Structure formats: C-alpha cells, structure tokens
Amino acid sequence: MVLLPPSEGKSPGGSGRPLRLDRLSFTELNATRERMIDAVIRAMRSPVATREKLLGVTGTTLADATSANRELRSGPTMPAIERFTGVLFDELDVSSLSKRDRSRLDEQVVIFSGIFGLVTPTDPIPDHRLKMNVSLPSIGKVAGAWRGSITDALADRVRGGTVWNLLPGEHVAAWRPAAVGTDDGPAAMFSVRFVDEGTPSHGTRTFTTVSHWNKLLKGALVRFVLATGADEPAALTRFTHPEGYVYDPSLTEEVKGTTVLVMVRTRR
Length: 268
Fold this sequence. Notes:
By secondary structure, the chain is α/β, with parallel strands linked by helices.
C-alpha cells in the first residue's frame, strides 16, 4: 500500500454526477464524512477573515475555494486521481502509466483527505479545500476527528503488508496504526527522506533535507514502486531520478517503527 497526501491544487469542475458517499471507497467513514461536509458548508458562511484563516488562502483563491466548498453536495465530480493537480501528482503522470501500473495504482494507492478521510484514485469527488491540520467549528482538529475512523478503516488493508508511508506530519497525525511486526500491524513500513550532500565537516558527511523538490521526488518514487512492486529497501538500489538522487543504505534509520530510507544527491 502507498499512502499519499492530497494536493492543495485541484482541477475545477468535472463531468461526474454530484457526490454520493455510497460510491466512495471506505464506506465505514461515511458518518464522519457527513459531519465533516456539513461543518465545512456551515463554515463557508463565516466572515472573510475567518475563512481565510481556515482555508489558508486569500483573494480569488479564497473565493474559488469558498464556492467549491459550498457546493460539496451539488457540484460535479471527477476521479480523485484527476482532481488532484499538485507537483507530486503531476510527476506521477497517471496518463502515461502502463495498463499494469495503472491497475496497481488503483489497487494500492490511498490518498488522505481532510474532508473525505480516505479516497482511492477512482473515487469520484467534487472540488474542495480543507487542510488536515486546521480546527473546524463544531468539529475541532480535523486530524483528530479522523484518527479513530481512519485507523479502523485501514486496519485490514495494512495488516501483514508493506506500507510506503509518504505522508507529511499533518496527515500522519490522522492515523494510529498497530505497531509494525505485531499481529495487527503491517509487516514493514517505509518512509523516504531526500537530502543533498554538503561539504564534509571534520571528516563527517553533512546533509541538507530537501524541501523544494520533495513532492516531485515522491511522485517519481511512486511511479517506481508501481512499476517494480518494490516491497523492501534493497529494491531502491535500482531507483535513480533525473535530479540525481540515489538510495544510500548506510543512512537508513528506524523511527518509531518506521524504516526511514534516505535518497541522496551527492555534491556537484
């Protein structure tokens, strides 16, 4: 399983019928989805300053986001993988995947969502905007509101399997899986960190964590995982990126049960 965050950027419009929760995956989340949708629609009646703080945008972008959120139940839908347009999804470039890899994408990728909790690539969803790390009136912290139901919904999917956890912290906070290696937990969980190697200091290697390229690099990594079926760190020895990042096994860390794999771009 590959766990991804959503993108803030989204394709507007769509040609699908309005949202029906019974057409989404993880229908056990529907009670929380109903509460979240109702709370978001109510919040869109708030003053501009309140909506700016909640949605993290201003001006035209705020107006567009407000309009989309007001139409969560009535607006057109499109598959989630087409709705999300951020750097990670652009690099993933779903339209160019082989038939086999597209099938793997649909089966193995799960996207976290502030409004819908979890969606799969084919789930038909409307345009929307809500971050996982904000507080929503009548709901409280969005991540906290989702934590129990997302944890339960993913339990069977991750039990005994391999999880590529490519979530940022705000989305990790919405999930509390059983410990790796236990009867109820995944067999292995991997996350990935991209770093640039700097000038050695007193004979010791130095690194700077990549931020600007992070989403693009993760998109390329997802393509690799889909193409190879990678389920162990050694598989990453075959992964190279045009920007020059390669897997360095010597930098692998264990952090709270997750194996953190490090991709390094050496000094030029």
